[in-house]
Every structure is written in structure tokens, then in C-alpha cells.
């Protein structure tokens, strides 16, 4: 096996909580839902992209990962900025829901949690669902606290950065829904 791209253990309470929607006490939670369109083909296209790190890659983050597809335990380091001003965000996948083989209502996606070196401590999940009427929705759920005094001092800027990255994830999902390569 190759050397791990990130070291350490998950560093927050409530590991896996984004799968069931309950953030641990003391961790602010952000939930964003976006309608992407209709139909099974659109759902499958977006779900397959979500499970291949496409939201992260298309959002402009630099993505290094141990696995081309999202699998439990895979580690990923995403980052933004340039040179010495790059902020890296190491995470580990804590749950995965694959695309089901049938065409009924379902959801697919994953959640990953922070590792030492991430500016936050918490978890984020990306889930795409299709309902009985064929509507496809993307839900992004995140709970986190700043990891240290430096990021706490820049609290408003850090929260604004989180909202900005979430909007880029949504735009990436909309591109996948539209079939943009």
C-alpha cells in the first residue's frame, strides 16, 4: 500500500453524523439543498460525479486522493491558494452510499471528516437524491468548528470561505447535471 497522503485520526465528535442529519452539540451546522433537474439519467450522472470527487475537482480546489472513487476510509487533501499561501484541508471518508441498481427513489453520496491540519474540525457530506416524481436534489451538510486560535481569529472570513466553497460545489453539481464535461 502507498504511504498515506494525510496523517492522524479523525478529530471531532459525532463521526458519521452527516449521514443521519444530527450535528454534535456545539458544532454549527450548515445544510444547503439545491434542485438540479429531473430524471434518472441526470440523477445517475450527478451521483457518479459526486462519487468520483468531481464536486471538489470542478470547484477549483486542488485535489489529491488515495482513490479515484470515493470509498470508506479513503483520504483526500483538497487545497486552495497558491504557493506558501495554500491552505490544505485533509479529510477521510467516513460513510458512502452508492448508486442503487433500481430506478426508484434513492440517494447516493458520501461524508468525510477532518484530519489534523484541516482549518476546521467536523464533517461534510454530499448527497444527491431522486424522489418518486423524478426531481433531483443535491444536499450538502456540514458541521464544524475552527481547529485552532488562528482560524478562530478569522472566524467571519472562515465562515465566508465555507459558504463560497459550498456555492462552488453547487455550481459543480449543476455542471454535472447539465452534462458539461
User: Mean pLDDT score, rounded?
Assistant: 87
Superfamily at the CATH H level? START domain
The level-1 CATH class = Alpha Beta
Identify the overall geometry: globular
Q: Unreliable stretches, pLDDT < 50, 5 or more residues?
A: none
How far apart, in Å, are the first and last alpha carbons?
32 Å
**DSSP E strands, number:** 7
Query: Helical stretch count?
Result: 4
| Cross-sheet strand order for the largest sheet | 1-7-6-5-4-3-2
What is the quaternary state of this protein?
single chain
Going by CATH, the architecture would be 2-Layer Sandwich
CATH-derived topology: Alpha-D-Glucose-1,6-Bisphosphate, Chain A, domain 4
> What share of residues is helical?
10-25%
The percentage of residues in β strands lies in 25-35%
Secondary structure category: alpha+beta
Q: Quick one: biggest sheet? A: 7 strands, antiparallel
**CA-based gyration radius:** 16 Å
Element-level helix/strand string: EHHEEEEEEHH
Number of domain units: 1
What does this structure look like?
With 181 residues, the chain is α+β, with helices and mostly antiparallel strands. Helices cover 25% and strands 35% of the residues. The chain is built from four helices and seven strands. A seven-stranded antiparallel beta sheet has the order 1-7-6-5-4-3-2. The protein is globular. The two termini are 32 Å apart. The model has no long low-confidence stretch (mean pLDDT 87).
